[in-house]
Specification:
single chain, alpha/beta, Rossmann fold, 2 domains, 5 strands, 53% helix, elongated
């Protein structure tokens, strides 16, 4: 495979982690194949983010034609969203840029590597759909059994209860937290109801 330059992309999720291990393996692989390379790094960047400084810089170079192969240590370093991963692979393919993932032994320059990538993407999508279906089935089952889903609803106070709450606050000097517990409302609601009558912010 001919490549003018490889783009090595490395990412870690926290500042306490280091990209050195990923870089060492990827550089060794690129050098073994005779590919000059540029390294793009993202520190303390979640894979769930589609916008990352290092990734954005690499993609800009892909679009300028500066690199013709993207190398990552593993697919989850590039993206955790199957949708995003497939979109990137499709863009790389349309621009004649290959994708290499060392951990999964994927190299889209070969038919076998492309097949492996397609299968992995399909399996990941299938697993996500199965998880969604299990969640939906669990919700349906809970509803059939009459179980209440979600957070319990808070009380909707009547005008009389609101007047009593304000009286408790003004005359008995009850703390907002105690009012919230007594009337089964949020602390913020208790404060707001009292503030509507000029209750000081204490």
């Amino acid at each position: 495979m001919k490549a003018t330059r490889a783009g090595i992309y490395v990412r870690v999720s926290t500042n306490s982690q280091d990209t050195a291990m990923q870089e060492a393996e990827l550089k060794e692989s690129a050098e073994r194949r005779g590919w000059p390379f540029i390294v793009y790094r993202d520190h303390a960047q979640s894979g769930a983010k589609e916008k990352r400084p290092g990734l954005d810089s690499m993609l800009a170079d892909v679009r300028r034609g500066r690199i013709s192969v993207v190398m990552v240590w593993a697919l989850d370093r590039l993206a955790r969203s199957v949708k995003h991963l497939v979109e990137l692979a499709e863009e790389f393919n349309a621009r004649g840029v290959h994708l290499v993932a060392l951990k999964q032994s994927i190299d889209t320059s070969s038919p076998a590597g492309m097949l492996t990538y397609v299968v992995l993407s399909a399996v990941a999508a299938f697993e996500r759909e199965m998880l969604r279906e299990r969640v939906r089935s669990g919700i349906r089952s809970a509803k059939l059994k009459g179980k209440r889903l979600g957070r319990p609803s808070l009380n909707q106070l009547t005008p009389e209860q609101i007047a009593k709450l304000r009286s408790d606050r003004k005359r008995k000097q009850l703390p907002f937290r105690e009012l919230a517990s007594k009337y089964k409302i949020t602390l913020w609601s208790a404060y707001q109801l009292c503030a509507q009558r000029g209750e000081p912010n204490v």
